[in-house]
Every structure is written in structure tokens, then in C-alpha cells.
Design goal:
Layout: E1 5-10, H1 13-23, E2 27-34, E3 37-43, E4 52-57, H2 63-72, E5 78-81, H3 85-94, E6 99-106, E7 109-115, E8 121-127
Parallel strand pairs: 1-4, 5-8
Antiparallel strand pairs: 2-3, 3-4, 6-7, 7-8
Length: 128
């Protein structure tokens, strides 16, 4: 068994697609109209047939309180592996990304947490 798909709830799918592709570097995999929304997924360019991230609309009434609580408590909605957290932090900072946690070493991992501009905190992590 392996993870095929996971999601982040986003306030605006177009804005999310721009951020997750143009800034974070993912590539669009699926973009299928579903009523007023879309089945919109991105993948890593390094693994185009790998795990998909669904940029899911935040329309369900339970989503906004959930997202608000996570952000208020500083809890990331997702975690993405990178080769070098400090280099990625610097690259993203130059692109104007806001971080709520600068690179922090914790034993065998280094993490940083960013604001995805769509209502979520996202962690980047490097394992040693």
C-alpha cells in the first residue's frame, strides 16, 4: 500500500495553482471541471507518476474552522521533503514567501514553515 493522493484545502484554486507551481515548483497533473470547482492536482516534477496533491476547495462548512485552528496553533497542513531546507528557505524568501518558522534543526531533521497564501501553513523538511 502507498499514498496515492492527499489534499490541502485552498481558498482559491487559481491562486493555489499559481503558488504551488510557480513558487513551490510542482507541476499540474489534473485539471478537471467539477461543477463550479475543479479536480485540480499537482505532483513533484521529480516523480510525475507519484503522490498527487489535490488543491481542494474550502467550501465545506467544517473546513474554515479547521484551517483557522491549525494556523492559529502553528500546525502545518502538509509537509514536503526538500534536499536542503536552508537553500529552499532562501530561494522562497527571495520570491516573497512568508515564513512562520525559519529553518530549525531538530535532531535528524531540519524544518521550516511557510504560509501558502491560500489559508495553510506548509512545512518543508530535510532529513539527515
Amino acid at each position: 500500500m502507498k499514498i496515492h493522493l492527499t489534499n490541502v484545502f485552498v481558498d482559491d484554486q487559481d491562486k493555489a495553482l499559481r503558488f504551488y507551481t510557480d513558487v513551490l515548483g510542482f507541476v499540474k497533473k489534473h485539471d478537471v471541471p467539477v461543477g463550479t470547482d475543479r479536480w485540480l492536482t499537482v505532483v513533484s516534477p521529480e516523480d510525475p507518476d507519484g503522490t498527487e496533491l489535490l488543491l481542494e476547495p474550502s467550501g465545506h462548512p467544517a473546513v474554515q474552522p479547521y484551517k483557522t485552528a491549525l494556523v492559529q496553533d502553528g500546525i502545518p497542513a502538509a509537509s514536503f521533503a526538500v534536499d536542503d531546507v536552508r537553500a529552499e528557505f532562501n530561494r522562497l524568501r527571495r520570491l516573497g514567501v512568508d515564513f512562520t518558522q525559519e529553518p530549525l534543526e531538530m535532531g535528524t531533521v531540519t524544518t521550516a514553515v511557510l504560509d501558502d497564501t491560500c489559508g495553510n501553513l506548509i512545512q518543508i523538511v530535510q532529513s539527515k
